[in-house]
Each structure stands twice: as structure tokens, then as C-alpha cells.
Amino acid sequence: MQGGGMGREQWACACMAAVALLAGCAWTPEPKSARTEVGRYSYIEAGKGEPAIVFEAGPGNGKAVWEPVFADLSKTTRVFAYDRAGIGTSVARSNDRSGKQVVQELRALLDAAGVNPPYVLVGHSSGGIYMDLFARTYPGDTVGLVHIDGLHAESAIGCFPGKSGTSLCSAPSVMLDVYARSADAMEKEKQGWGATITQLREAGPFPPIPLVLISGTRNQKSDERDANWLAARAQYAKISPQGREIICADCSWTVQHDDPKLVVNAIRDLVAQARAGAK
């Protein structure tokens, strides 16, 4: 095709994009990069409005894990996801990988990216514990927390697989594969985990904000270990007077992939509550 026309490859790409939009497929914007006083980070953002939704991935994962829900939520308000240090191109100046350091780096990045509070925080797996610490550190800036497939902080110490490839938790093989692909970042976060638990204990009470725990139980076994996991989750929901738990029996460890609509609806509910409370 000559002149300003569209080449065959461009035409095919345009058609694929149109089909994806019509089918409601997942989409994320082009990543951006920002430098702060504590490091350099890759992030994505989309949408407009308050409160902003801020995502924190689990160990070994980054912003891409939120692709199934990112576009849909960007229709509701501003959404933000990033890669922690050691994931992708994100690099921190400090080797400290404790929760307090992660929270400091996230807050500096939000300021650099111009993503202002209030925030609805969303964390997956150990990312939920980082978000719990964020909420306790900045209670005036946080209006809700959604914790997906996470563990109660007190029972999370043994949930990282060792070099043998085994785990004290019921993490499925897909999560173990992620750990193996991100060995360096995982090892540093593992080393900081004890400090993270201590920091959480010393951070003060959880603020009186809505807390939603979403748990996928498809891979759970009928044994004492998994029964204790579910009991700890139910107990964890009680740290907030507005805490509740949602169980997805057909979902595995990553509910945002297995049932993205459930996750989207839970987050939108907190956004709506925050807006109603701000009036």
C-alpha cells in the first residue's frame, strides 16, 4: 500500500485491536518511568477521578498481574500499578526489602507520578500485607483496602518456598514458578520478611476503613494446614469494624485472573463507599 495508506501488518494489528476492544479483552497502557529520591520505577496509570486505586502485586510479580482488571476499573476512577524494586526495570537505592521500605518507595513514587490521595489500596498475596502497612502508616490517606489471596501477617513467615521447591503454605505450582523466575527479588523480600512482620505489629491499629478479603479456595485441601489458613483469614477480617471476606470456590490463588469481575465489583464498591462518605 502506497502513500499514507495502511500497510498489511498495520491493518492486521488495527483489526486485532478492534476485535479485542469489542470482546472486552484486558488492556493496559504503555508503561512510564519515574525517578524518586529512593529509586527508579516502572508504572502504568489510566482513568480519572478519586479515590485512586493503587495496586501492589505479590512476591515475584509486578504491574502485569493486574491486567485482567486494570482497564475495567479505569472506567471508574484513576488506577495505578507498578513494579517493586527488583521486578522488571525497577531499581531501588536501598537493599532493604522490608515492608517499611516498600511503603516508603511506593509513597515517593505516587508523589512523583502525581497520584494524590485518597487511595483505595489493593494487594495480592504478600502485597496485601505491604498495603496493610501502608494503611497503618498513612491512615488519613487511605479509604479502603482489598486484600486478595493474602495471608494473615502472623502466619505468613513460612510461606516462601525454599530452595527445594517446597513451601509451608498451600501455594500452587503456578506461584512457585513465579518465585523461581524472580529469584533475586524474592530472596531479598524473603530476607526482609521478619522485619516486615515486626513493623506491622509496631505500626499501630488498622484504621477504621472498609477491608475486603478475597480468597480463592479451589486448590485448598481438606487438611489442618489449609483449615488454619482459612480460619486466619476470617480472623484477619475482624481487624476492621467494616471488614468482610469473600470466598471464591472456583478460583485458585490469583482470583483477579480466575474471576476478574468479582474483584472489579469489590473494588468498585469501596470506591463508591469512599465517594459517598466524602459528600
Question: What is the CATH architecture term?
Answer: 3-Layer(aba) Sandwich
CATH topology: Rossmann fold
> What's the story with the biggest beta sheet?
9 strands, mixed
Q: Please, what is the CATH homologous superfamily? A: Alpha/Beta hydrolase fold, catalytic domain
Shape: globular
DSSP summary, beta strand count = 9
Structural class: alpha/beta
Mean pLDDT: 81
Structural description of this entry:
This protein has 279 residues and is of the alpha/beta class. It has a single domain (28-278), classed as Rossmann fold, CATH 3.40.50.1820. It is 41% helix and 18% strand. The chain has ten helices and nine strands. The protein has helices spanning 8-23, 67-74, 99-113, 126-137, 173-181, 183-191, 193-202, 224-236, 255-258, 260-278; strands at residues 32-36, 39-46, 52-56, 79-82, 91-92, 119-124, 142-148, 211-216, 243-248. Strands 1, 2, 3, 4, 5, 6, 7, 8 and 9 form a nine-stranded mixed β-sheet that branches. α2 packs parallel to α10 (260-278) and α3 (99-113) packs across α4. The longest helix has 19 residues, at 260-278. The N and C termini lie far apart (56 Å). The model is unreliable at 1-25 and 160-176 (pLDDT under 50).
Keywords:
alpha/beta; 279 residues; disordered N terminus; Rossmann fold; nine-stranded mixed β-sheet; 10 helices
Summarize the structure.
This protein is an alpha/beta fold and 279 residues long. It is 41% helix and 18% strand.
Record the SSE blueprint.
Elements: H1 8-23, E1 32-36, E2 39-46, E3 52-56, H2 67-74, E4 79-82, E5 91-92, H3 99-113, E6 119-124, H4 126-137, E7 142-148, H5 173-181, H6 183-191, H7 193-202, E8 211-216, H8 224-236, E9 243-248, H9 255-258, H10 260-278
Parallel strand pairs: 3-4, 3-6, 6-7, 7-8, 8-9
Antiparallel strand pairs: 1-2, 2-4, 2-5
Helix pairs in contact: 2-10, 3-4
